[in-house]
């Protein structure tokens, strides 16, 4: 006998992983160069040079036993101090290093946070569509319920829907900006509006925490786009950060949870984070990479590549007549399907070897997601295929 819920999850891949596997199979059949795989958010630019320089420096300067040994469960103290200091210099926020918990990436940050905040089975976490599908797995795994709220016409959070959804069972609201899958960056006004609603509710009922999932924080492409640091807007915030995307280190599994020192019961929340980390076996994140990311915190790879890809793809697709959400950040483009049924559209796209992820699992069944973290030439080569697809729908093509 096994855990049925775990069996169900393990015996079926996510829509993204399914397509990623299909891409590999199809590539073996017709040559990888003939498959336009836009399925997965694997960074396509190298980690900044400083990452490798730091690895080499640490290997030369630190005794091996110490370098590869356990750190404290919540992460090396000097690593946490460096990250906290950077929050002050980068965002003007006075973070407390003793409220930081180093993790194995955003996935671990989220599962730990959700387990820490779920007080009772059936507690609720709210999220705005479109959203990263693993949230459902993480929330339900913690014994809570995911409630999906609509976005407004610009795919920004619908605050009226938030007001209506709040009830005493709500423990938190998960946000993700820059957003996977839409590329949208939530505006400061929206976040301030959200904070006012959550604050009013928290004062009257129980505290609602804002859980800000931030793997894409640094990935923005226009001077005019500013990503708001949520702790500056709402006191009851936990940040689930990851270095996977900004430093192009997804396989190294490294990130952190930051509990705002201004949060209600910050010390108890942090203790619950430490306890949930222990319960889930996420203690002492990879020691070498804790030190590497502390030295590289705030750096990115060469973002001009993503910007170029974004511009090329957005122009190419809109020129064909497709309706797209302009992506301010992350490395995803969200495109409206002309037939309103993303699954059927994705199947048709496969005829042209275009592998796009249906928006169904993101809570937006009329959209598809195109991950443009690929070589620019792949996009150049794919645009004629998109044009043929557009023509099938009577668009300009
Ligand atoms: N959250 C979002 C929105 C993501 O897109 C991803 C990965 O693609 C994750 C969390 C998980 O990131 P990590 O690789 O750091 O676990």
Commentary on this structure:
The chain has helices spanning 4-10, 15-30, 49-61, 64-67, 77-91, 105-117, 134-141, 159-165, 188-204, 266-280, 287-296, 304-320, 342-350, 376-392; strands at residues 36-37, 100-103, 124-128, 145-149, 170-175, 209-214, 237-242, 255-259, 324-325, 332-336, 354-355, 357-358, 367-371. With 397 residues, the chain is α/β, with parallel strands linked by helices. Helix 5 (77-91) packs parallel to helix 11, helix 6 packs across helix 10 (266-280) and helix 12 (304-320) packs parallel to helix 14 (376-392). The relative contact order is 0.16. The mean pLDDT is 97. The structure holds pyridoxal-5'-phosphate. Pyridoxal-5'-phosphate binds next to helix 6.
Give the helix/strand layout.
Elements: H1 4-10, H2 15-30, E1 36-37, H3 49-61, H4 64-67, H5 77-91, E2 100-103, H6 105-117, E3 124-128, H7 134-141, E4 145-149, H8 159-165, E5 170-175, H9 188-204, E6 209-214, E7 237-242, E8 255-259, H10 266-280, H11 287-296, H12 304-320, E9 324-325, E10 332-336, H13 342-350, E11 354-355, E12 357-358, E13 367-371, H14 376-392
Helix pairs in contact: 3-11, 5-11, 6-7, 6-10, 12-14
Bound molecules: pyridoxal-5'-phosphate.
Oligomeric status: single chain
Low-confidence blocks of residues: none
- Within the largest sheet, what's the order of strands? 2-8-7-6-5-3-4
* Ligands and ions found: pyridoxal-5'-phosphate
Radius of gyration in whole Å, from Cα?
Answer: 21 Å
Largest sheet: 7 strands, mixed
**SS strand fraction:** 5-15%
Helix/strand structural class = alpha/beta
**Proportion of helical residues:** 40-55%
Distance between the termini: 54 Å
